[in-house]
Amino acid sequence: MKKRFEGKEVSLPNREWDEKVSANGWLSSDVILSAITDERKVKAVIHPSYCACEYRMKLNLFTFGKIKLQLPFTVIAPPASVDCKGYVGDVQALIEDYKKKKGLFLMLNLKKEDTLGISGNCAAVGKTLSSCVFLNCFKNFEDYLQNLRSPYRRRVRKALEKGRNIKVIRINNREFDYEIYNLYLQVLKKSRFPLETLPITFFQLSNCNIDVFYNENKPVAFVMYYTNNGFMSFVFGGMDYSVRDDFDLYYNMLLHMLKMGMENKVNIIDFGQTAESTKCRLGCELEERYMVAFSGNKFITKILCLFAPLLEYNQETIRYNVFK
C-alpha cells in the first residue's frame, strides 16, 4: 500500500510559509499570488523538512532535443521563469515525499550543490540552461568600457550610438499597461524554450524595478530587475521587434542593466538564462543549473534516469577574452 503524501497545502498569503521561504524571495506569498490565473493554479506546500511551490502544466520531455513528447508534469519551481529553485529545505526529503503521489515531477534550476543532496538513481538529474553571471569589479560604466578589449568596446559603442535617442524612464509598477505588456508577449513568442505566460498582474504587483525605453513617447522595450544586498537580477524584458535592429534594443537593454548594477555598486549581476553568447561578450560567465525529473512510479523513474542524457541541455563551451 502506497504511503500518504505528508506535505500540507496551504492557502496564501500565509505567515508561516513566508517565514520558512524568506531566503528565496521568489517564493513569497505576494509573488505567487501575482502569477496565479484561472487557468493556472499554483500551490504552496509545507512539510517539516521542506517547503515547495508547484504547478501543473504540459511540457515537452525532450525540450532541448529534437524529439517532441508532451506530458503533464507537476513542476516544482517559482511561478515565473526565473533561474532559481522552487523549494527550500531538504531536497532528498522532498523527492521521497513527492514519490508518494502519482504522476511526473520536474524540479527546475537547481545549483550544483543542491544536486549533491540527491541520492543516486532516485531521480534523473541533468543540466538545464546555464545562468549568465557578471562579476562586477568596476568603479563605473566608463571604467568598464576602458577595460574592454577594443573589438568588444567598439561593439558596445555602436549599440549606444544606435540607442542614443531612446529615453529610459522608471515607472511605477501599477503603470505597467497592456501596451508595455505586449512587449513581453513578443519576446515570449520568440523564445526557444517557453514555459508559461505570466499575467499582467505579475508585473503590476511586483516589487521589482521596471525601466521602460521610449522612442518619441512610445514604449519600445523594458527591463524588469531587482537589487538586494549587493546582488542584482535581470527578471524579464520585452521589446518591439519591428524596431529592434533600428535601436539595437536588446544590446541596449543589457547595457542598461550593467549601468544600473554599477550605479548601485552591486557585486554580482545575474542576467538570467538564454542568449548566452551575447551576454558573455559583455563579460558574463556561465553558471550551471540543473533540472531533476522523477515519478511516483519506480519503473518510470528508472526510465527517466536511463534517458537523462537526452533530457538535458548540452551547453557549448563559450569563452571570450573580453577584458584587457
TrEMBL record:
Where does the source fall among the domains of life?
A: Bacteria
Supply the Gene3D superfamilies for this chain.
3.40.630.30
Protein name per UniProt: Acetyltransferase (GNAT) domain-containing protein
What lineage does the source organism belong to?
A: Bacteria, Bacillati, Bacillota, Clostridia, Eubacteriales
